[in-house]
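In response to reviewer comment 3 from the previous cycle, which asked for concrete evidence that the modeling workflow produces usable outputs, we include below a single protein chain processed end to end. The sequence was submitted unchanged, and the resulting structure tokens are shown without manual editing.
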Amino acid sequence: MKEKLQFFPITAFSIIMGLSGLAIVFAKFYHMQWMPKLPYDVLLFFTFALFMFFLFTYGRKMMNHFDEVKADFKHRIRINFFSAISISFLLLSIAFMTYWPVLSVILWWIGVITHTVIMFYTISFWIQHNFEIHVMNPAWFIPVVGNILVPVAGVEYMPKAFSFLFFAIGFFFWIILFSIFLNRAIFHHQLPQKFIPTLFILIAPPAIGFIAYIRIAQSWDGFAVFMLFIAYFFVVLLLFLFKSFYKLKFFISWWAFTFPLMAITLASVVAYQISAEVMYKYIAFVLFAIALLTVGLVTWKTIGKIRDGEICVNED
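The workflow returned the following structure tokens.
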């Protein structure tokens, strides 16, 4: 058991990102009167409980195996997944916005403060270390996504300038990191199998950016449509890359499939609300079905790995 605790992966928090994203989708569909409230209630509190369990478990790892946590912080790939903790706070804050506003505010502030610290540490880590181009992968986008998430609930709790600050930082680094990733993907070695599912993370920044911009600007304009259509472009691109995902060995990184699919589903619902174009409603339902199937698949695979004792193991 001690060995399992020692190797409890920081990547486990990507599960919370996926499930809390799904809870937000359930909430949105309930508010649109497209589905009953019960699935939202059940998944919301299950995800919150699971998040608390993961925090407790990683806290125990920190106390009993501090060197392992320190190694995660200095690892060239795993460092990016620490932002999944702060993003989980922010996503749960969004999920609780209409259900329990007081808890939402608390979770939001914890998420903002934690993400800001982790973001600055991560970027300084990137700058202070020399990386080979093959190390770059879509997991580097995770700290960026957190910035763009801040305004979604933040416009309710702070002046819009505060939310726009985080939106601007996130948008800027999204463009920079995407340029670097495109260079790495086209002109260098292929991604390792373990990180191919993280390609889905490419959908998240423009999809969340669209939602955040609508929340800040309250405007259905050219910039909003630009981000939404860029997100759709990545969805279609990944469909064309289907062969890259065929017969992949399962890793926890498969959960990278889930959260971006929730983000583009939510963006489609918001687009329908704002524009009243029925096309976006149909797109939202199709993406919702794909997202549910994906969550079901990775949940089944994860349970199988837990049953076989292949989750909390040395990944190096």
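The chain is about 75% helix and 0% strand. We consider this sufficient to address the reviewer's concern, and the full set will be provided in the supplementary archive.
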